[in-house]
Amino acid sequence: MLPTAQQYWRDLLHGFEEPTTLTPQRQVRRPGTVHAASVAWDPAQTAQLTAAAGRLGLRAEDLVVAAWGLLLAVQAGADDVVHGALVDGDTTEPVPVRVRPVPARLLSAHLRDAAEQYAANVRHAGVPASQLPHSTSLVRCGRPVPDPADLVLLQADLAGPGGRLRLSAPADLLTEADVRLLLVHASQLLAAVAAAPVTARLRDVGPQSGFERHRAVRQWNATTTGREAGRCIHELFERQAALTPDAVAVLQGADRLTYAQLDAAADRLARRLAAAGVGPGDFVALHLSRTVQTVVALLGVLKAGAAYAPVDAAQPVERIRGLLRTLRVPVVLTDPAALPTVHAVTEAVPAVREVLWLGAPGLGPDDTWALAEPAADAPAPRRAVDTDVAYVIFTSGSTGTPKGVVLTHAPVVNLIDWVNETHAVGPADRVLFVTSLGFDLSVYDVFGVLAAGGSIRVASDAEVRDPQRLLTVLDSEPITFWDSAPAALQQLEPLFALRAATTASRLRLVFLSGDWVPLTLPDAVRGAFPGCEIVALGGATEAAIWSNSFPVGAVDPAWTSVPYGRPIANAHYYVLDAALRPAPVGAPGDLFIGGDCLALGYHGDAELTAAKFVPDHLSGRPGARLYRTGDRARYWADGTIEFLGRQDQQVKVRGFRIELGEVEAALATLPGIATAVAAVHGARADAQLVAYVVPEPGVYPDPRDIREHVATLLPAYMVPAHVMTLDELPVTANGKLDRRALPEPGDDGPARPPYVAPSTAAEKAIAATWAELLGVDQVGLDDNFFDLGGHSLLITQLIARLKATLEIDVPVRAVLDHQTAGAFAAVVEAALIAELSAPADAAV
């Protein structure tokens, strides 16, 4: 049987999983140095604290211990913290104290329980730290301690008529400014505890002053900007079309439309849709490849008063059918070549009344041409108003079902106005349109640029898949504006150094959003395109594309990531603690978005909408809402927001938003799988989705078969790069899944074929390059690039290496079409032969 003291500590610390840590606002590396600050209390303050303690039957020192634990919970952004405490005369060494604050609980009850726990901990003191269930040495308080250079140390001297608080911390943990601010908050929290009425609850007592709360709620959200009311997204285009009818609006190669031509085509489509009974309240599905007709479709649907719903043709058929059923789509717009496929998909969806095709006349059946003039007596399009729905974009859902985010016109118009005014977007600008319609960046690329009188260069499907071709477009065409997730632009980065120096590029503005911006990327882009402005943006599909921004100048070496920035016009941002109060500067909290940028909610899911869009208790505006993003963030001292990552099971992998629950639901449909979880391994650009499956007894699944099965249910970006088979899932002491204990992907990834050694020079070169790039010991001719952990960013690096070492240009498509080392080596060998024979051919 365990000794009594050890059993006590085991019970007290049961389920405590993470040591309490404080994170500095800047990276600091000054080992051996201690920052310290102190503040004096006047006699009245000390007397008030002592009186408050007396009313509860406690000592003033007990309130100091309790308040310090509450402050650490707020400052660490945690609801379960452990710190050390020592009161003179109680023990000679700090004892661990566990704090689990509940915002709705009475403050007095919490203080009494904290004091009782501390007293019990003192009675059981003396157990060596090495024998405690968890390390508790990262944050302690009290005095004296054996090695204060290792600790965050709060000292309270309450003897005599006055008092003094002193705080010290190692310089490699907190900056001097951090220490001073933490001490101020400790003093303010103690004062608030002392002055609190008997009915006060924990949520009523915080460490911040009234000024600090006002600054976070009002000053840092002073974004109100007057806007013309009642405008719709397509009306911004119509105004510009009337001003510059002959200017080029959209182009792809030789295919181009002026503003007048685009307006006329969109009007014809609107009339055709109206004749089919489409109007406000309806969704029109867009199952289209990337052409100028895409822009016609977007405008035509909105001119009909309806809303558009992008459908990725590469998604599994059942997923597409599910979206069409959910939205009760009456009409699908597609390409003439895709008509047979779309008809096969929609046969099982009774709501779909018509499938119409877009393109030049004669490419498909006349009766389903989307631009055919309807009968003279057909109903005219009904105009939308700014409160009508403009589009729905589906994102990954934790229940296994995608969730549709529904946006009206008004918040999108607000965003367009802000971008165009802030960044002077105008008729001279041309965007290289590379994003998918299912990614809401596309909304600005089309409607925002057209509202400013600029032009849209639509990248084809083939160009989007080939970083070399995209870079050629940037270098050779008058592109001024790039907008994408960081990963899309990062694919071009390895190619920057391989291109000839150019002064022809007109790229002036780069928007990066949707994921972490690599710290090296801004300077790499500016080096490749001198004078280019880099802007990092953030937000959510639920908050009209972007609702915050940060112009990226010089990258500070102290940054751990590019900052999130500040809210745009008419948007509000709040970093809130567990009690839904503004978190102190530097403290992690939950990120909420408010203001005139929010979506209506989730289509057909009132429960989820109510859970994610909550009443706004901060703005003072009746009926206002806040969107609970699920992100963690913190304030810098100047109000800039730093993004810290997700707090739930939603992750970002190379810009794509993924609910792990949806991946897990797909895995669970495979016969023979008892349970499955998904997780992300790797940091940011190198992040990979990994599946862990526990098979039923006697079942031995092939990881490759599992990936192929999941690929029939989920989009390609949600298919795990690795599948690992486990006998059981790791769990914590309290029985919860321990995601941190899930093994790193390695040899238990997709089953590798028997090793076939390379023999030719090309095969040896490719095997060696793949091994180095993918971090494996050896590569055989039958090994698959993607099964070894390859992804889009690594493809670009591979192409760049071949260009640098072999001086050949191999298209990205070659890797996608020839995924084994042997097949790809044959492509490389053919390219080398062609390169060597080119001079001789030219001389003939």
UniProtKB/TrEMBL annotation:
It comes from the Bacteria. Keywords: Ligase, Phosphopantetheine, Phosphoprotein. The lineage of its organism: Bacteria, Bacillati, Actinomycetota, Actinomycetes, Micromonosporales. InterPro entries: AA_adenyl_dom, ACP-like_sf, AMP-bd_C, AMP-bd_C_sf, AMP-binding_CS, AMP-dep_synth/lig_dom, PKS_PP-bd, PP-bd_ACP. This is Carrier domain-containing protein. It comes from Dactylosporangium maewongense. Pathway: Siderophore biosynthesis. Residues 757-832 form the Carrier domain. SMART domains: PKS_PP.
